[in-house]
């Protein structure tokens, strides 16, 4: 019932310690500072390009607790730069609107109180227009900050902020899809035009084998990575094989036809309970329209493409499917071991397709097709800390570590992940019942 | 969890039987037809004036299940004319958009399936702009229909549609207030300017006595009334007295200070349970700001005016307050008996105040101040059918009768009721726990 | 989730003021005192006879929030005498166990805190055996109290306590039926033996007409009545007719066959929502067993008897049925007006049948068959205060008044009501969605 | 609301395939058969001894969905033998009551439909007495079966059944404690007598270090183990240290005093949400009684013993505590590595203490005190399948594998675990919010 919010506006100071930096900055820092300035503009403009077609209303409504309004994504990513950088690092910075600290904090306890997540859709003010102005205000200040050639740790925060923004670019798309799927009109985010179903049949399934090994996984060294991707550490590889491509819609249809959604012994106990409670009988967004399976996409309702990777399935479904085939999901160690030498290319958001693409043999650099892009691939690994993992100090340490419970790792990125955002060590994570992300699966098995 | 709607669009035909009318229309009908055309434009334009300041987002979000988005109100009232009049009565009428039949039906089972009430806020499309166009489309057609000088029953439906629209004008205001109260920024719907607290003290309380009588209540004869206002019938009046004005905020503050919200013996059992569960300790929209009670209004946060009628209290609170004073709420029979000879004037929405006004002795025509307007007055009468009540035939018969359960009658209109909409026989009704309407109370007692 | 109770044991003193009585008691009081002693033993022993067959476990489990464990009924009715009489009126009375004041208070706020209603089934201790001992302890003391020939107001409280106990006798039966119906074994409370279905067909339906009148309803004068049965007052009778018998199962089966449970226009809006949410498609306790309708009864699963009154229907169902027949439910005024001269006999609990009996023409004293007993008859009247009703002073004033919200009045008693408990003015009341009571209906209509 | 169960009684045949065994049984099998007969009687009698003091009501009520009634535990363990052994392996076996197959199946989908878990407490019939008779019936038959010197796979099932029964012995105690804690009388399951608080102060904390190693963990070879304890496999040990004893109540009190329950940065995000929602401010069963912390135990309310291991804390609390100390929980690999050479002794249920005992230096065989018994120790390891784990074939394969989601591993057994039941490889598992088990923690850290 109507528990109206209290209007309490917290004092948002003291969120990160003011730091003093050594006066002389290295040349390297200057170069990096310049490069980051370019990246900054590029990433921020990509967000603009993405959200440009949304109306004020499209950008304001929250379709479920898991999702956020597009406007909130636009403002929160901006708040990140303002809060963690401008307010402490840019002398004389004037905050755009002090109330935004409360409105657009996501979950940083150390920054202070925040607007409750399930009520993000109540904010018809500020308008989308005002949020664009907020972004311009912060962008101007950020560029001024970068011109000061700030210290490494500041530049690291900028880089974190840009990767953070890219994550929200993907979420903006998954959340808009969810919102539009709630509308009986099933509006399209982009025109459906370039998505003719491929004429070739689905790619054949083969397996790539891997020998026993002591491998190393996790991030180390140069290049950006989130804290949870490290420390790099040894891991035992037991002989296994990995499917040459993700599971396809045509295979999923067989699973359905064989009673996959009605056979309790295929399912984890929790999954079976949820599948029944929620009446699952097909992947999320699938609709049976007069006997034809269609699927709600960012390009409106479309026929299900049998040759494309199955998408919008939960971990519980992926796990049940794997059991049905008498195979299993890979561990994240196995996945990363297989991916570590793989070329980092695939169908990402910058292709503009915004739907998973049927894998075609011969397109990749070896026999693992669609390893990156298309659909996030569920692994059987719970999202836990790597050995000797320590969360970063300060509020940004809340970024990943506190979510290490009840979630599973997904790997490889999807067709709505910004190009260049993921890498072999990248760990995405969601609860096993979530289906609104672009999540699919690739089979593995013991050798 | 995300149960996305099925996209099923019902066949909306057959909703009301096509009727054939006699060719010759009486002069009286022509006159009435003309008058209704004027009323039509007036009422429809008042809606426009009311909602003009809302953004696309303001008009789209649904703040709770009880409330509807402004855009939905604008479209639903239009749907009413299109569905019950144009589609069956205007030859060659072209429906604006066939999907609107599903989207904007409120609760008319006989018209067909409809978009679920709790999901009205998911409709970011059609946009507010498109809804304005929808209204223009229907307005043009309605004026054409009225020019055909249609039969009495058609004119009756037009009149019903206009009164229906006025009800939604009030709901649009109560729902926007609720939405804006969810926003930590507490935006104002109208500027706060003309609402200085009156300097005179609160109006003194006196009582007006009524003798035993056999009275008649209910609507009969000329002029519009909703079906539930009749049939007119005898009712026993037992000697009673009625307070000269509604209960004021200053009196409510005394109730609070005396532990009114913490004393179970003052409350109905259901009310006590709900008051505790929801943490009630003051009227809805009141906030304690550093020791000062403020209240969210259509003009933003304002100090509570001690001399104004208390507003936004539930039946449970009103009943507890009356018990605290050792008085009682009036029955609807008593209220109507007292009001039947009273001048129909007061602080309605057309005053532009949009807040209850302190009653001032001598302003009314007799000693019952603020009987109409300011705040709806809870009566102790459950909303039931009058003797020999029959709901109208067809879908419009669902208007009132099927809601005759679990609600109490309120009388007199409020400061957000359109001027000219209510009358002495008018029965408003809400569940006893509802607080977002402009509801207050007036005390009564036995003699 | 596991919110364990706090173990707080309230101070149970001060619950009713100690009163001093005049020394000399009238002879009348002595006589009444003696008569009440006999009644006391009779009623208390009837409870014993009723519950004798229950095991410790049967008597302990709570099958839903609306129901209470048999043990709780046994203890609470005893607590009533202990709390409202012995502790203040019997010099030197030693409380059986001070913790029982907390455990067995139902809803008397003025007596103090109490064990939460939904957790009554957690009390495996005290055992059923201990509760029987508790009853003996209190019975002994009560008889000693009655020997002191106490004052009228004390005797009134004893009488209230006995009527209270009878109400709980009925509830004990309805609650045991509900409990046993949860058990897949469907155990029988009593042997099924005497319940052969009658061979004669169902009694024909006729109507009894009543003229317009100014009637009096409500209790006044001698004999016990609950406070809510008064004050006696005038009421307008409009010409109406009343069915000669309750609605029968054979008629209900027609309603079902005609889609009664699938036709929204027959239902109140709230009722339709609940019927769908809970999947109602037949009266409560009915089960389709291989095409035959059976019903869970206090004598185990039995075939539905077409000639018997329908039982275990909610107000919502009764109202929908009446609308299906194009009739209506009677008001409580009409019911009482018709019943006021009727012989107070029928199939009550003391018949031992414990199921509604098919009405047989000629058995009653006039043409209203089964008016008393068999099934409680829903009226269309919300349970409200009669004009000038004042609840009794002190804690017993919480008995009825505070429940006057959201309930409807039922009249006439049922086959599980103790013989001699009801009368023409008796008002039972339940929420419109409740079905576990022995509730049916009788049709009425305007003349 | 009252959704009464359907009374459907499934066909319980075909639950396990009838197997034919070779006629000649090895001598080894005969010996094992005899030994198992003795074990059978011993374990079954221990259950009897445990539950002997419970009343019919104590044994029937279900205090929450996570817990089961004692009667259900007694019947379900018996059902296990009847279903998986007698009905298919003992020629001419007469089932005790065919309805028990439905009533007492826990979660074996392959055996058929079952009484819903949350409604186990509705079964007041069969009575406790009848369940004891059921046990005798099955015990007689089981001994006859064992006299036939059945094949290995049958004997394995008997052994599984006995270990299964021991698990339910522990659950019976945890569930009775929970039930008694719901009763404001806080009854004691056993007399409080032998539990004087130790006079010596709490054991000092020291650390035992472990070098890097390639270790083996998991069960292999002789002796019973559950399927999830294997296969035995390599695991990398990184240098770490383990606390010499579990965390004690005195340390937990410091955590509380330091605001541990009010500091979000100590908590996992899910844990913080749950801790707030449920109002956690101390371990489960702790009550502040006039400023003294007491705890509900199987021996009634007792003062919290500062020197004893903290008990009834969730994973979320254990994890927050570890973060507060800047240490961490051990992984299950580390725990098992440390425990593998440790003497398997400790304070188990057969000590009769039924409460955790303060660890005393010098009592163990090395510096890891209370490693077994006292309290289950949360590890940081999600409960997942070991490499190459395959669930057993048939219905018993549902024993463990399908629960491998959303739970954490606990190790070492508790003061209510039957003596001889656990071992170093034993994996217990519960969801991270559960607190009614005897769960505590031991700190670890990296070296």
TrEMBL record, chains A, B, C, D:
Domain DinB-like: 42-170
Region (Disordered): 1-31
NCBIfam families on file: egtB_TIGR03440
Domain Sulfatase-modifying factor enzyme-like, first and last residues per copy: 222-356, 368-444
Cross-referenced Gene3D superfamilies: paralog of FGE (formylglycine-generating enzyme)
Ranges of compositional bias, category Polar residues: 22-31
Superkingdom of source: Bacteria
Protein name, as recorded: Ergothioneine biosynthesis protein EgtB
